[in-house]
Input
Amino acid sequence: MLEIRFHGRGGQGAVTSAQLFAQAAIMEGKYAQAFPDFGPERRGAPVAAFCRIDEQPIYLRTKINEPDIVVVLDPSLLQTVNVAAGMKEQGVLVINSAKKPHHFMGQELSQVATINATQVALAILKRPITNTVLLGALAKITTVVGVESLIDAIERQFSAKIAALNVKALQRAVAETLVLNKDDCTPAELEGCSGLADIATAVAAEDLPKADSEYLWGELEPGCVITDAGNAKSFRTGDWRSFSPVLNKKRCIKCGICWIYCPDIAYREDEEGFYIADLDYCKGCGICAQECPVGAIHLEMEEEAGVI
Output
């Protein structure tokens, strides 16, 4: 039985990825299941989805705690989620990243595949929805489900126009995904690689949110809880941003319209009276740039960050 765990953020399509991959397997005569794992979080919060595929009936109904393959839809998750948790020895990593596979290869992995899925999604879908792009990368590293079956599943899931774009994104990912096998690395190359073990260590070193509700609510500042962005400071809701607002101070008239319209109240007034976006909470929605009366704000695509 093949077990795959998908890590993404609310709104990026991780749950749909698992469902499409399972549907494609079922259409090939295999047994499959797919289901999500998330709480009441809003758009942008970390979510997980699971997919099992087997030639025999599947009776398990638990979360996948020891995946064969981990698929990461958003590289910013490496800063807040231990995506390597429980991963089987010699597991496979498929990740949305502009970095080469060598960056993630380590002793604990047998194969790494990387694709700049955000760039592909923006070019084809015009939105940073990376799920079908990552499915193309996943299809390239495993033969358990064929590309044609995935295309069939996508065409059944979406309208003709949307399906055509997603199929195009998937096919481009199959062509452009970089794959590295551990056996192709020299000992010296492996020595210089970080791998998921180091990523997990880096994440563990952070003060991550705890499940204890008393811990989380204990962080709230006195007074009205909507007057300041990120009162529960452990949750950096801006982590999944693809674009950042950039202020041209020469054009800015300090009117505060950006602060008024920001849905996450992510703007702060600095010592000079300019309103600056707090990137820990800004999701890059672009409303501030759209509403600015003098065009002092524009969006710039961010470079990929990492914990290593």
Q: What stands out?
A: Residues 202-234 have pLDDT under 50 and may be disordered. The domain at 2-205 is CATH 3.40.920.10 (Pyruvate-ferredoxin Oxidoreductase; domain 3). The longest strand covers residues 46-54. The longest helix spans residues 160-176.
